[in-house]
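Researcher: Quick test of sequence recovery. Tokens follow.
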């Protein structure tokens, strides 16, 4: 039976709501484990099991392969909720779920089914930037390289490795324009050496270890073009592309941190006394003014992020090409929301006084996590400069 457009939309909304509720239940576990996650520098086994049992790692895997088949907004809502509970967990989970979504969308059908469909139900992590070198051999590639920032790798079953393809003489293979051939391969974790060197000020629990592979044979079916723009799946979400999905996943992390900071400061100032205030800090007009402005900023950022990405996916669902302006706005939103989160977390930190100084502190973690989140190369402010070139013409017509 063919569903009408309204029936399809209702079904998708119901599925989004179901998985958001699952995320809320897991978030309770995450909150209880947050201190242990930071101590271990990776999510605990308890949290991993809760995420896996709820089916959350596979939110961007199509139903055909046993996943949730969520759209981008539904996936963002799950990430935001987990990041609200703990920034590191949200980040590591996003790295797993969104790289898994990219892999299933852009690998060839045989490779994707083998990795992600039951009973395998693979979870990916790792760096897709082509810092490795691969030699083409019969049936695949032999790859050697050292890689960084494998967020969520402690519990991933497949690890991504980006590489430049070389010929038998060791020279990069280039096209007519001189551009090297670049690919991403996915390797079973037992073929990867992890270097265990994650010691950082924020996002401590992401387990973003360095790693390396040495002369690792990767079958062709487990590789994809690094900058492919044509997915191998029909679901509209994959039309957002590697950057749309991979960069976009950072936006709900920022939203989750901002939301948690607002929640924490509202509780802290409810009973906080400070010299010069005639009542508790939370009842002062000065705090109320500051809170109202930052709470509005959070809601505006959340609305813009979800609107921008939802609009682009809806365009793809209609069978239309996502425009350059829509892609620019996705990059704009993903970067701008990092600055918004930084402002909100700083506002909360300033009003909290010593409440963020002593460890452990949920707001203190937000401060450190937000400081690290803004440093990611994919949300550098230059992306706003690039986005402006596609957005400005609409204001000049």
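Model:
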């Amino acid at each position: 039976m063919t569903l009408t457009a309204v029936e399809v939309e209702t079904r998708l909304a119901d599925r989004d709501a179901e998985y958001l509720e699952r995320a809320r239940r897991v978030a309770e576990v995450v909150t209880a484990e947050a201190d242990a996650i930071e101590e271990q520098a990776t999510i605990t086994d308890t949290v991993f099991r809760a995420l896996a049992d709820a089916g959350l790692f596979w939110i961007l895997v199509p139903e055909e392969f046993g996943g949730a088949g969520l759209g981008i907004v539904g996936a963002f809502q799950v990430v935001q909720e987990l990041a609200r509970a703990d920034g590191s967990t949200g980040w590591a989970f996003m790295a797993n779920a969104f790289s898994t979504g990219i892999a299933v969308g852009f690998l060839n059908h045989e490779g994707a089914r083998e990795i992600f469909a039951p009973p395998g139900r693979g979870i990916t992590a790792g760096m897709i930037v082509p810092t490795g070198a691969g030699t083409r051999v019969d049936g695949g590639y032999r790859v050697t390289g050292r890689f960084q920032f494998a967020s969520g790798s402690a519990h991933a079953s497949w690890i991504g490795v980006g590489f430049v393809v070389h010929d038998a003489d060791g020279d990069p293979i280039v096209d007519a324009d001189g551009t090297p051939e670049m690919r991403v391969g996915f390797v079973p974790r037992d073929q990867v050496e992890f270097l265990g060197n994650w010691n950082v000020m924020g996002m401590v629990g992401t387990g973003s270890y360095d790693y390396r592979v040495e002369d690792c044979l990767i079958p062709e079916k487990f590789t994809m073009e690094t900058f492919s723009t044509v997915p191998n799946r029909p679901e509209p979400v994959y039309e957002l592309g590697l950057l749309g999905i991979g960069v976009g996943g950072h936006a709900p992390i920022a939203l989750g941190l901002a939301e948690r900071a607002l929640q924490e400061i509202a509780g802290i100032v409810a009973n906080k006394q400070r010299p010069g205030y005639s009542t508790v800090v939370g009842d002062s007009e000065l705090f109320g003014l500051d809170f109202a402005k930052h709470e509005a900023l959070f809601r505006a950022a959340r609305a813009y992020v979800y609107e921008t990405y939802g609009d682009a996916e809806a365009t793809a669902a209609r069978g239309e090409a996502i425009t350059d302006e829509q892609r620019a706005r996705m990059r704009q939103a993903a970067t701008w929301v990092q600055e918004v989160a930084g402002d909100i977390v700083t506002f909360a930190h300033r009003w909290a006084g010593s409440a963020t100084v002593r460890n452990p502190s949920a707001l203190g973690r937000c401060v450190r996590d937000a400081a690290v989140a803004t440093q990611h190369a994919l949300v550098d402010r230059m992306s706003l400069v690039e986005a402006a070139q596609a957005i400005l013409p609409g204001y000049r017509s």
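DSSP finds twelve helices and seven strands in the chain.
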